[in-house]
Amino acid sequence: xxxxAVLWVLVAAGSFLFVTPARAQNTDSSALINxxxxxxxxxxxxxxxPDVMGQITKQTGVPIVAVPDVWAILPxxxxxxVTAKIENQTLREALEVITRKLGLQFLLKDExxxxxxxxxxxxxxxxxxxxxxxxxxxxxxxxxxxxxxKTDLKTLLEAxxxxxxxxxxxxxxxxxxxxxxxxxxxxxxxxxxxxxxxxDALEAVTTQSPATWYPWGKTIVVLPKQEQVRRQLQKDIxxxxxxxxxxxxxxxLSMRSGVPFRYEPGTFQELAPQSRQIKLVLNATVMDALxxxxxxTGLGYQVKDDEVYIWNTASTAVRPRxxxxxxxxxxxxxxxxxxxxxxxxxxxxxxERVKEKQFDALRKMMAEQGFKPTNPATQPAxxxxxxxPAPEPPGKDx
Length: 398
Fold this sequence. Notes:
Phage tail protein beta-alpha-beta fold
């Protein structure tokens, strides 16, 4: 297979009007870009996706940017190559075709068009394959041809699968919503327009039920949202923070997992100052990182259908989360969280001894560097010496 993903787009001939970049930068830039999207375009594009974005901007005056997730999720990232011949189509129609081929979508922002991964591709949680991009393109281009606009979850998924069979596609629907540990009722009503595409129908499932979906190889996987959220939280990450505000760290976890985090009002305001600053180095899953942060701060969380809900356990009647007292790194790089409740007494005593040795080493370093703390720490009480054994009582000679 070629090192590059090549996209071919061909539509019929027409003309195009030009708007300069300077006009798109004034206070009405969003409105001007929107007007430009509805004018016909004639473009001959070829190059990497970033180059093609620049070519469109140069020829139309419409700035195009991409969120970082685009490069992380495309099979070849910024090296993905696009070849497109656009004629007798509006710029909006051209962008719809190009982005659909790449599993992307575009949104009109204040001063630019922003490229984003399509929702289903974002839910994939990893770099996509050409097969999965082709699946999204096929789903978006194929009409469902449903004879009614009212149906239920089971019937709709069967209709999508039957349509894929009818057009002899290599893709099939796998409905896991009824067999998972958190099953979704199959008779949930789903409203779908009669002119809907297969992609529209599947997105209707996401917006109108506790189920969602994503492409996986040759399979269209449909599963409960809560199971999908937990799946996204299993994404491996490397986390390095040295005194970062906890809200910023949680925001990073949300962004990198693709799962929205929602916070109870007052969650961060009621945290103790020492708990707001996160010092953590972790090579683990997002879920592990979330567990570690909650253990260090006293926050609590719950995985819901389409989000993670976070609150401050100190401000509620909920039992505080188990405190993390140490993080052990194994020879393989795996980091194991040691919680207060499951740490044996002898291990806890050893951890305290190791901590005291580290404190002593830091105090020695402070003295060598001439550092004088304004609040000297109280020296730990000396350990009592072991009492000599009591003399044995006199016994009788045998």
